[in-house]
Design goal:
By secondary structure, this protein is an all-alpha fold. It contains eleven helices and two strands, in the order αββαααααααααα. It folds into two domains: 75 residues, no CATH class; 122 residues, no CATH class. A two-stranded antiparallel sheet has the order 1-2.
Length: 203
């Protein structure tokens, strides 16, 4: 079984190094840590009194892992979820913040559990997640991964500029979809034909 730190290190590896994509609302980002996060945490790494892209560039892997463990795993209470579900929700929290929890809460609501969809894990959501996992231990992780994949598709449906994250220029699965499917059993991965049919309306 992987440790939480190993999961965080994998997330950092998955996120990659420094990028500043004008189509990404996150702005300058390094190892998945955005400039907005660094400003929120007061991480002025070059001690010049301002947190800029230069500070984002200076961030190292260990600092990114530590940020994720504290602010994207421990603080949001992901540790309280059933262990098999934690890696996917943790990874999604790094990628999409509180939307990771909303995806889970919406899924639990669809399954008949009475939870408030507010993006924050509390006793109600945690208890529902545990109950759902106990009732269907072989399916909840896949169901969350599929819901996550659908979230990415909906983002790309609404925002043309985001489609490059969901579909490559060659028409194959983009980074968002591949990332979601890392946490979905292979039998639920979309086939090439299914993916092309789903993305055909994008032109």
């Amino acid at each position: 079984m992987q440790s939480v730190r190993q999961i965080a290190e994998e997330i950092v590896q998955r996120e990659g190094g420094y990028v500043n994509d004008p189509d990404d609302p996150g702005g300058p980002t390094n190892f998945g840590v955005t400039i907005h996060t660094m400003r929120r945490l007061g991480l002025d790494l070059d001690n010049d009194g301002a947190i800029t892209a230069a500070d984002v560039r200076k961030l190292d892997r260990k600092q990114a892992v530590d940020i994720f463990l504290k602010h994207y795993y421990s603080r949001p209470l992901i540790a309280e979820l059933p262990q098999p579900l934690q890696a996917s929700v943790f990874d999604m929290y790094v990628n999409a913040g509180a939307n990771a929890v909303k995806i889970l809460q919406n899924l639990l609501t669809d399954m008949g559990f009475a939870v408030v969809v507010d993006g924050a894990l509390g006793p109600q959501s945690v208890a529902a997640a545990r109950a759902a996992f106990n009732a269907s231990p072989d399916h909840l992780v896949d169901a969350y991964g599929i819901a996550r994949r659908n979230y990415y598709f909906r983002l790309a449906d609404r925002r043309t500029a985001s489609r490059k994250y969901a579909r490559t220029r060659a028409g194959g699965k983009g980074g968002w979809i591949k990332r979601a499917e890392e946490f979905i059993s292979p039998r639920y991965h979309m086939t090439t034909a299914e993916f092309r049919e789903r993305t055909a309306p994008w032109g």
